[in-house]
């Protein structure tokens, strides 16, 4: 299956470089380019890509606000120059599936797109520990459960799935560890996110780390 990607960055040279990398993969197709947040939201809503590669600092509408606007429309992977700062925290709270630094190697970028397209979360390996530690010090933005739910309402199996997400396991790895079908794993992950009022696996991993 071809992964459809929208690239959003206000620097034309950066967009061109990213597009060249993505176009070199047989399983990835760039369906559009946006030069600001407003264009990214409009194009993503129309084109419905599988993944949006989103810069943080953009004119008209920043990447964080654009990510928030695209919640439920498509998965957003943040590409940022900053490893740990308020922009990254805001993006994760807005529902981004993860983030990478712009100096990421081409092959790692391609693999990140594939991971996010599978519905899994991803954080640049070099900053994971710093990100979670710093994020935990920030005032929580979505620690409240969704209306009518309670974190204690997670079933024992859902608690196990949450623990696996907190360890950074993919759906396939969770399925193997808990001895269940991958489709069932995806269902449990969706239920965990809904019950905890979270938007992404990355938020679930941070949620888990803050409570342990």
Radius of gyration from the alpha-carbon trace, in angstroms: 17 Å
Number of strands: 6
Instruction: Write the element-wise H/E pattern from the N-terminal end onward.
Output: EHEHEHEHEHEHHHHH
- Identify low-pLDDT runs: 140-145
- Count of the domains: 2
Distance between the termini: 38 Å
Structural class: alpha/beta
Protein name: Response regulator transcription factor
Modified residues (4-aspartylphosphate): 55
Domain Response regulatory: 4-117
Organism: Nonomuraea maheshkhaliensis
What does this molecule look like?
Residues 147-212 form the HTH luxR-type domain. It comes from Nonomuraea maheshkhaliensis. With 212 residues, the protein is an alpha/beta fold. It folds into 2 domains: 3-136, Response regulator (Rossmann fold), CATH 3.40.50; 145-196, Orthogonal Bundle (Arc Repressor Mutant, subunit A), CATH 1.10.10. Helices cover 50% and strands 14% of the residues. The chain contains 10 helices and 6 strands; from the N terminus they run E-H-E-H-E-H-E-H-E-H-E-H-H-H-H-H. It has helices at residues 12-23, 37-47, 63-69, 86-93, 106-117, 128-137, 156-166, 171-178, 182-196, 201-211, and strands at 3-8, 28-34, 51-54, 75-80, 98-101, 122-123. A 6-stranded parallel sheet has the order 2-1-3-4-5-6, with helices on both faces. Helix 3 links the parallel strand 3 (51-54) and strand 4. Helix 2 runs parallel beside helix 3 and helix 7 crosses helix 9 (182-196). The longest helix is centred in the last third of the chain and has 15 residues, at 182-196. The model is unreliable at 140-145 (pLDDT under 50).
